[in-house]
Design a protein that fits this description.
The protein is of the alpha+beta class. The protein folds into 2 domains: 54 residues; 176 residues, Ribosomal protein S6/Translation elongation factor EF1B (Alpha-Beta Plaits, 2-Layer Sandwich), CATH 3.30.70. Helices cover 49% and strands 17% of the residues. The protein contains 7 helices and 6 strands. Strands 1, 2, 3, 4, 5 and 6 form a 6-stranded mixed β-sheet that branches. A hairpin with a 7-residue loop joins strand 5 and strand 6. Helix 4 packs antiparallel against helix 6 and helix 5 packs parallel to helix 6.
Length: 276
């Protein structure tokens, strides 16, 4: 009798255990197993894509990464070319050694004002000797210091760029310089390797003259000094300048060869962060 009771009790215990395991299997284990397997699907999809791009090696069961190595070499070659191009651009857009030296020194307002005055006098003398008319307001358009400027030393590059451009226009035998207006300095994206900030310096200028003189002036703006090219308008320290916008229109009714050109001219200077 006792044995029979123990046997029934054992049966009930086993049934209860089976019931608990069944509930655990369907309620916990199977959902958890499906959830874990769901993480494998993205990996399997990426593996299929990887196998298509880089098939398994026939001799050894591994992925052939030779195409990837070739791509890396190509990218390294492109980077080297870009670095060489960057050096070329920096050399072509570089200002004279004198201007670069002043960019590295603390800005002196009195020195700059004196230099600005000398440039204005030189422009007036060049215009007078070449019979070029300078309209009112052109001299006042020369870059001027403002207390709001964060990098006033950039005025040296600005002054050099504007002054040399105006002298170049006079040397090209234009008839008049009608207007000059400088624009705020624009900061370009930072160079991650050198931590340098390229700054864009731009100004608007309006000149008038015969079509040949105006065309020569426009052509010489992006030109760099070349000893093989004998032209008084090209100075050794002249940086390459770029024409952002240009509008040429007929000037006057009687002489059909006279034109007026409105230009927006840009130059670039590389500013390295100051060491504290």
């Amino acid at each position: 009798m006792i044995a029979t009771k123990k046997y029934r009790h054992l049966q009930k215990t086993l049934l209860l255990i089976c019931l608990v395991l069944g509930v655990y299997t369907f309620a916990v284990y199977l959902p958890l197993n499906s959830w874990v397997k769901s993480f494998d699907k993205p990996i399997e999809q990426n593996l299929k894509v990887l196998n298509k791009k880089f098939p398994l090696n026939a001799d050894k069961n591994w992925i052939d990464i030779s195409p990837l190595e070739k791509n890396i070499k190509d990218y390294e070659e492109i980077e080297a070319r870009l670095d060489a191009l960057k050096i070329t651009i920096e050399r072509q857009t570089a200002f004279s050694e004198q201007v670069v030296a002043k960019l590295k020194q603390p800005f002196q307002l009195v020195e700059y004002q004196n230099e600005r005055q000398l440039c204005q006098e030189e422009l007036q003398a060049a215009a007078s000797s070449n019979f070029v008319t300078i309209y009112p307001g052109v001299l006042a358009g020369y870059p001027e210091y403002s207390s709001e400027m964060k990098n006033p030393e950039l005025l040296w590059a600005y002054l050099s760029m504007v002054h040399n451009s105006l002298l170049s226009a006079i040397n090209c035998r234009i008839t008049s310089i009608n207007s000059l207006m400088t624009r705020p300095v624009k900061t370009i994206a930072q160079d991650d390797k050198t931590n340098a900030f390229p700054r864009e310096l731009s100004f608007k200028i309006t000149v008038a003259g015969n079509s040949r003189s105006v065309l020569k002036f426009v052509t010489l703006l992006p030109a760099k000094f070349n000893p093989e090219v004998k032209d008084a308008s090209l100075k050794m320290d002249k940086p390459e300048l770029y024409i952002d916008r240009i509008l040429i229109k007929k000037d006057g009714i009687e002489d059909t060869d006279n034109v007026m050109a409105d230009l927006r001219i840009c130059g670039f200077v590389l500013v390295k962060p100051k060491k504290e």
